[in-house]
Amino acid sequence: MSEQKVITRFAPSPTGKFHVGGIRSALYNYLYARKHNGKFILRCEDTDPARSKKEYEDYFINVFKWLGLEYDEFFRQSERTEIYKKYLHKLLEEDKIYISKEEIKEEGQRSEVIRFRNPNKIVTFHDEVLGDLSFNTTELGDFIIARNIESPLYHFTVVVDDFEMNITHIIRGQEHVSNTPRQILIQEAIGAPRPIYAHGSVILNEERAKLSKRDPLVRPSLEYKDEGYLPEGLLNFMAFLGWNPGGEKEIYTLKKLINAFSLERMQKPGAIFNPEKLEWFNKEHIKLLPKEKQLEYIFEFIPENIKSLPNYSKEKIENMLNILIERITHFGQIKENFETGEYNFIFSQPEYDKTKLLYKTSTVEQKNENINNTILALQEILESNFTKENVKEVLMKIADLLPSRGELLHPVRFALSGMDKSPDPFIIAEILGKNETISRLQKAL
Predict the structure, then answer these.
(1) Could you give the CA distance from residue 72 to residue 414 in angstroms, rounded to a whole number?
(2) Is 3.30.420.140 the CATH number for 7-76+203-276?
(3) Most distant CA pair in the chain: distance in Å?
(4) Which CATH architecture has domain 354-444?
(5) What's the pTM?
(6) CB of 218 within 8 A of CB of 212?
(7) 263 secondary structure, DSSP code
(8) From residue 302, how far is each of 297, 298, 306, 335 by CA, in Å?
(9) Is pLDDT above 90 for 101?
(10) Which of 24, 189, 203, 208 is the most exposed place for a label (fewest CB within 10 A)?
């Protein structure tokens, strides 16, 4: 199969919102197919009519669209029943499967199921991550592969689909290793070639336990979109959960991940899902965005009540860009920071305790003299040249003549922001503009 065109697949079940843990398998299959100019197939495993819902299918399709993981073909298993029936009938004729009456405990009645006639043999296969593996299939017994001719089950449908779709590589998590012997037996029964297997590391939580769907860390994927995470940041993070290209570099775009990815670099030990690392990856990708794109995200997350303030303007937000970006790891924090009042001082003159204008042991007279000198100096700067660089140059000339620069910079910063912690006064001055900056300094006097 290694000589054929590479074809990979990812096959989620539409039985709930697609969780972030599933992204990694989809990503690895996508990366491998794209690197080898192959085909990536998305397959909806919806053979459970009781649990499968169209809304969940739409959900994971939207996840793929958001992440930019474009698939070449799309299939629904529910539309392939006739194909499965053909294989079941053939296997019945060959006596490789048989119909068995089973007692259903809950209902107290007997029902027919279709069982695979297990040859009870040792199955050995090579895994690109785990090496050679052997399983004694005797302990599996004659396992069920269909409820009836119309209702095939997972192990059977997945093998038939992989054969029909010419899947060359099956890349998935190690939790699926135990499924492989059954699937190999079915492959042999229908005459399917064996694909190449690569079972990646198990994803662990911070306590090093296997990450389950009930773990608080495992969230529906589109929640990350709603909270302002970048698809590039999330994909970069997920790629490094069990794979590493080698070297020190960690920040990769999707295109660079495609070029770097290989099955050989997939890791065997468990990979820890570390939310702090995700925040780091996402912030690094935020920094890579052009300013226009950064602003586009910021405007999306600014609360409506802020946009309705009299002194709100897009120009102020554009001037605030650097301080807004500095304080976030995902864009949803923009909304949080505005809602907590962190940037209120930008849009209205702050109210504050006037004693906080004093720097350490400086007196009111010294403070007033320093602020007055600042006002006189700033009045000399043209409105069109009122940039943080020019403001800083003017203020530092005054500050450097004082015993401590803080005697000037502290009262100026506090007069402009009214906050114990805020950006430096040069940045605030540029955002506020010349007239508003001088107005606030006069109020401080």
Answers:
(1) 58
(2) no
(3) 103
(4) Orthogonal Bundle (1.10)
(5) 0.91
(6) yes
(7) G
(8) 9, 6, 7, 5
(9) no
(10) 208
